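Quick review question:
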């Protein structure tokens, strides 16, 4: 499947497919927003790498590497079919973001790097309240610092994560995505 194939399908389906890297602190609503986007833009794919990793037995480090490889392969198939992909993932290092950007370029999809952002204190509190993964406040603070480095070096689009108001956060995401393309909203679902 070459570049022309991807362009033909994307054009036939009403536009170029979007690859959205939805980054942010743990607990800020990335998975919720990604799922909402997929629901509103069928057959968009909300590609949660953590869920893929959880399906792989064995060493967590190896499972993480394999999950990222599987995610790239799945995103490639979906994008070349002309469909949007949203990857909700905390990424405090640039390597996977670089792979996503390269994939978008390869298949001629638009690439959007977005960070759902909250203050350090709120982000740590929200993550701690989830209670799904054990991490100390110092580890969470270091994760937040890594994200701030990503923001400073990559300059992604920042969308405030409004606690308790995922609809507002989602609408803000749509606004920035559509402003980047100067397009009207493509949602097929009525709000």
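Suggested answer, residue by residue:
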């Amino acid at each position: 499947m070459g570049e022309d194939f991807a362009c033909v399908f994307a054009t036939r389906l009403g536009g170029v497919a979007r690859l959205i890297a939805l980054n942010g602190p743990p607990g800020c609503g990335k998975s919720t927003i990604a799922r909402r986007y997929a629901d509103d833009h069928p057959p968009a794919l909300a590609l949660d790498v953590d869920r893929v990793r959880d399906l792989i037995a064995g060493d967590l480090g190896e499972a993480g590497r394999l999950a990222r490889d599987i995610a790239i392969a799945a995103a490639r198939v979906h994008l070349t079919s002309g469909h949007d992909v949203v990857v909700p993932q905390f990424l405090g290092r640039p390597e996977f973001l670089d792979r996503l950007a390269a994939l978008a370029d390869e298949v001629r999809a638009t690439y959007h790097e977005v960070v759902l952002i909250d203050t350090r204190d709120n982000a740590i509190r929200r993550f701690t309240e989830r209670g799904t993964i054990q991490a100390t406040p110092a580890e969470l603070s270091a994760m937040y610092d890594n994200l701030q480095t990503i923001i400073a070096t990559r300059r992604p689009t920042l969308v405030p994560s409004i606690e308790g108001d995922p609809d507002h956060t989602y609408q803000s995401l749509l606004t920035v995505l559509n402003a980047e393309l100067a397009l009207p909203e493509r949602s097929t679902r009525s709000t």
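Why it works: The chain has one domain: 3-178. Confidence is low (pLDDT under 50) at residues 1-13, 186-191.
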